[in-house]
Amino acid sequence: MKPLYLWLDHDPLSGPPDTSIEDVPGVADIELLAQAILAGRLGRLLPAKLWMSDYEQPDPNRVRPINVGKLLRDRSISHRQRFELTEIDPLNDD
Fold it and tell me: Any alpha helices (H) in 1-93, and if so which ranges?
């Protein structure tokens, strides 16, 4: 079986996938992703958006963006929502 490739921390066109999950024939890709999340295969901290593709090096038309918050709500997966600020200067008190 071929894998479904996932990008968690960057755009799929800018680098290789972060991980992959097994693509099971007859099971919807989004359901496979939800199962992987529930099993902890993607870790405890998930981005607000991730990308999924059948191809390790996809062209822009072969990538599916996934709204992680919506997926968790739709599947009733218990979660907390947080936002990490990445461009704060800790030495600047202004």
Answer: 29-38, 68-74
